[in-house]
Write a structure and sequence with these properties.
mainly alpha, 2 domains
């Protein structure tokens, strides 16, 4: 047995081995890809922008897909939800939705604590300033749209 007393000995010993990368047989890769993309025929051949649009659509529709799956799990859409890619997208969308809601609530609580420490006149001035700025931006965008 080799004695590895220091970190440098360990890394020297580690570098002495030849590292082989694991590469699956092409037929196994084909089978795994067909299992992963099952339910989305032709998805791998689409250009990247179309893939991103398709994935974004699925991710944004996840609350409706989940409700549909609860109501009718044996429907064609419900069966599609059991596919690995859809499961991954639903879990990722759920996590991103949670993060968005968490950050919104955090901002709301920060705003409420900020407002609670101010005088009522300061709060009114702040609200009027923010609302007028938003209205100015909307008017500017509307004016550019008409022109």
């Amino acid at each position: 047995m080799i004695s590895l007393r220091t970190e440098s000995d360990f890394f020297k010993h580690l570098n002495s081995f030849t590292v082989f990368q694991f590469v699956a047989h092409p037929s196994i890769q084909q089978m795994l890809a067909s299992i992963w993309y099952d339910g989305l025929p032709g998805f791998r051949r689409k250009p990247l922008p179309q893939k991103l649009i398709h994935i974004s659509y699925i991710a944004l529709m996840f609350p409706f897909y989940c409700m549909l799956y609860i109501i009718a799990p044996n429907s064609p859409t419900g069966k599609l939800m059991r596919k690995p890619l859809f499961k991954f997208l639903m879990h990722a969308s759920s996590y991103l939705f949670f993060l968005r809601k968490y950050s919104q609530m955090n901002c709301l609580f920060d705003f409420l604590t900020f407002v609670s420490t101010r005088k009522p006149l300061e709060v009114q001035i702040m609200v009027i300033t923010v609302v007028s700025f938003i209205m100015l931006l909307d008017t500017n965008i509307f004016h550019q749209h008409i022109s």
